[in-house]
## 1
Amino acid sequence: MSSDPTTSPSPHGGWSQSVVVLEDAVVVPPSTSAKLVVKAGVFSSNRDYCRHAAMWRRDKLITAEPVFETPRSKLQGKWLWGGVLYHHFGHFQVESTARLWAVKRFRDEIEGVVFTPRDVKNGAEVLAYERDYLQLAVGDLPVKLLSASTEIEALVVPGQGFGLGRIAGGTRVFRRFIDQQFAQDVAPDGPEKLFISRSKQGLGQGGFVGEEVLDRRMHKAGYTVFWPEEHSIGEQVARYKAAQRVVALDGSALHLFAMVARRPQTVAVILRRERIASRSLRQHLHKFMGRKPLVIDALNDTSEAEHGKKRLISALDFDMIGKALKKHDFIEKMEPWGGLTASEVSAD
């Protein structure tokens, strides 16, 4: 086992810009369905658990040491450890990409990237959007999802460079990797003013019943309403690169925007949850863009979800939203806005 010096240690030991290379490593995937903590990970040739390969979320480990399993198969050559593959779009972006920064250094040595599924029973495949996203990060390198214990001739285990909590701004080496490598071949294509909508998401997704009202308001104010789920990852990136002004409710789509955003762009985040819930997202935007987003907290603190995970649209103070957008030049000062009208409330 060899390692490089750690240049950016975590306060709790979970983040690192160091790399460990294991010979005859064994990757053990989870054997049961997971909730928060996934029992999966990497062992050295002498069956020592590799803590360096574990994943932290905020200040807690979310991958725990599994029971060692005799390998059922073997991969020849050198591979890079990607970690656990999460199918939730947000967690996939901030946690399943967290070790890809080392690809640039080891590209000429490795055969590809290996992941373990979060749940071998319900998620033992790489989804189409995940393959598209990973291709923007690592190009044509093969990606394998290991659903059975596997011995690997040599395994590169980079430290965690991204995630939720204090690491949401990424390590310097991770930010540099994204800036120089991610989606470089995707050209900007789209309008200058973009409103990223969540109005077509189901009741199981957080937000508001009646978000179409906000869609219509933003459309009248000169914004193109954009539903990310209707577009490929490449198309989403093209729109986000082209937009000079972006407005959105906080959500996973903004993690992708943050990956390709640059300082001249501006973004306004309308909170759909309590402020603490979006803290990591806001840090991601700030550190990767080089400027803080405008945060509009217009949520009625007494409101609760009434339909699935959704509140009613009346839980948002529309008058406050309009004033904030005008003050910071996201919409014209003379744009008619105001609070929700009776017809808007009754229509949705």
## 2
Amino acid sequence: MGKRNIIRMTPFRLVSYIVIAVIAGLMSLNLIENPAFGFIALGVWGLFPIALEYLSLKSKWVHDLINGKETVLIKHGKIMEENLLQTRLTGEELLRELRSKNAFNLADVEFAVMEDTGDINVLMKSDKKPVSSYDLGKKVAPLAEPQTVILDGNILNESLFSLGFNTEWLGIQLETIGVSLDNVFIGQVDSSGDLYLDLFDDSVQVPQPKVKEMLYANFEKIQADLTTFALETKNEAAKAMYSEHAKNLSQLMKKLKPYLLR
């Protein structure tokens, strides 16, 4: 019958679950004299919702009939009082739901809709949205899901191997940081290969990984050295070579900066 969070369950699906539970309870207590009738009722209430869910995937009309439609509560910054009355939602309840979406000022809300599950989704006005790297015209490194490689002091080999690492690499990382495996509560490795640790002993300060920052700092030092060599040498051929390499390295650093510094 699919996976659904109970707080996001439609009324029809919730009623179906309750009826199935009641029928199963009556059968287990032998309150249904004929078990065949109980199994028939259980089968109907089990298969009927599945069939309707399948039809709802194929037909929007069936989907709207079973699950209902979303209701617009705020449009162009204006509250739709009629729709608010239709959803049996008071003004105070609407404001509370908006606050739960970090919209404390009604004037900042452009659009709000109540989904068929009862959730309210909010669209802030364009000048009230958080600034993103896209808005600033800056490139950032793509992020992938971090993998948990240590849990309760135990190494999770499957997650570790999926990243292309092994237990020897993990042991070297822990030895470098100066932390024993049995003191690690959770250890995660991000898409850049940095290891983040949370220890059982909170009094121990774990240094944050600075591999990418150090690599970028080395690039800066090399670029500065090349520029210095170009200024100090009196050989025109060497000066041109150093200047060209410094320029190429500077262009490379611009491309790598979003990936090494974020």
